[in-house]
Amino acid sequence: MRRLRDRETTDLLVLLVGGTVCFVIVGLMLSLIISEIARPEHDTSAAASAIGDVINTMVGLLAGFLAGRSEAAVRRQNDVFLTPPPKPEEDEPT
Q: Could you give the C-alpha distances from 48 to 18, 31, 34, 45, in angstroms and in order?
């Protein structure tokens, strides 16, 4: 549980939503497999296509989330490197 305390709220929400969607997809796939076994004469291609679309959407969302985080890290690193050094303090004549 210590790992979860160190994470930001956004990370926790992404993990929660991603985990929920994964469980839903697994349930849908199991019901689709059972339906295919029980009644092979029914066409399940539309359901399989919809599940594939959901999986592709989740992969795209995750990739966008990770790209945004890495872009922010690179931006902060560039800000550090591109910041000009402070001017040296000169002694004032007395």
A: 20, 11, 13, 5
Q: How many domains does the chain have?
A: 1
Q: Which residue has the tokens 């001017």?
A: 87
Is 91 part of any domain?
Answer: no
Q: Determine, yes or no, domain membership for 87.
A: no
Structural domain including 66 reads: 2-82
pLDDT digit string (tens) for 25-53? Answer: 888 888 888 888 898 888 888 888 888 88
Global pTM value: 0.56
* DSSP code for 83: S
* Rounded CA separation 57/67 (Å): 15
